[in-house]
Amino acid sequence: MSKIKVLFVDDDLALGSIVTLALEDAGYEVHYQTSLAGIRTVTAEMQPDIVVLDVEIGAKNGIDAIPELKQIAPEVPVLVISSHVESDNVVKALKVGALTYLKKPFEMTELLAYIQRFAHPYRPKGTEIGMFRLKADENLLLKGDEKVRKLSLLESKLLKMLAQNPNRVITREEIAQELWGEYTTESSEQSLNNYIARIRKYLADDRRIELVTIPRIGYKLITDGEQQE
């Protein structure tokens, strides 16, 4: 069984060391950092089960980072810690999605109690596509719990884009912008054709879904319940 992962952000090195050691001793996997630099990337890559976040982090306010964290990991609880417990700070933190506001200094037993209560292993369900399920975070296409294929990054991005917009035409320009950031060459057009052909092959076992080409415009992932005109 994998360890529960804690993302801990606080610029107090002494406290950071104490908390990190205590959490590791309690059996948690801890990523500790002293700034908000790269917090989006860290969250996306680590997929923490709980975030413990200081308010004053250098010249920045940790509360302001909570909406970003929630965009990437909306179900992950965020625990705010601070010596500043003015009501406006507390209210602001709770409004943007913090679970609670823990006053410094605190007892480690108190922090551990919160983590034990609210940090449960988070497993992204993935995007359902008929009988399939796409786990875009791992670039995996599944059928139930069975692995169908390990996708390339661009295949995964393309399938996710189509699956999140079922029964809607996605233009070739939209897709190319998502995959490459531009769409200007014949080679890009041929690459897109190749990716579409592969996606059709991967989904072929489910006759309820169809990836349709809209000539000179784009593509449409038709799911069960809509018939093509």
Architecture blueprint of SSEs:
Elements lengths: L4 E5 L3 H13 L3 E5 L5 H8 L3 E5 L1 E2 L2 E2 L4 H7 L5 E5 L4 H9 L4 E4 L4 H11 L8 E3 L2 E4 L4 E4 L2 E5 L2 H11 L5 E3 H9 L5 H17 L7 E5 L3 E5 L7
Parallel strand pairs: 1-2, 1-3, 3-6, 6-7
Antiparallel strand pairs: 4-5, 8-9, 9-10, 10-11, 12-14, 13-14
| Share of residues in strands | 15-25%
Shape: elongated
Run of helices and strands = EHEHEEEHEHEHEEEEHEHHEE
> How many alpha or pi helices?
8
Domains (count): 2
What's the architecture of the largest domain, going by CATH? 3-Layer(aba) Sandwich
CATH class of the largest domain reads Alpha Beta
Oligomer classification: single chain
Helix content: 25-40%
Structural classification:
alpha/beta
The name of the CATH superfamily of the largest domain reads Response regulator
Mean pLDDT: 88
Distance between the termini: 49 Å
Radius of gyration, Cα only, in angstroms? 22 Å
- The total strand number stands at 14
Outline the biggest β-sheet. Answer: 5 strands, parallel
Strands ordered across the widest β-sheet: 2-1-3-6-7
Question: Within the CATH hierarchy, at the fold level, what is the topology of the largest domain?
Answer: Rossmann fold
Task: Indicate the low-confidence ranges by residue numbers.
Answer: 225-229
Tell me what you see in this structure.
With 229 residues, the protein is α/β, with parallel strands linked by helices. The chain has 2 domains: 5-118, Response regulator (Rossmann fold); 153-222, Winged helix-like DNA-binding domain superfamily/Winged helix DNA-binding domain (Arc Repressor Mutant, subunit A, Orthogonal Bundle), CATH 1.10.10.10. Helices cover 37% and strands 25% of the residues. The chain has helices at 13-25, 39-46, 66-72, 87-95, 108-118, 153-163, 172-180, 186-202, and strands at residues 5-9, 29-33, 50-54, 56-57, 60-61, 78-82, 100-103, 127-129, 132-135, 140-143, 146-150, 169-171, 210-214, 218-222. Helix 6 (153-163) packs across helix 8 (186-202). Mean pLDDT is 88; it is low at 225-229.
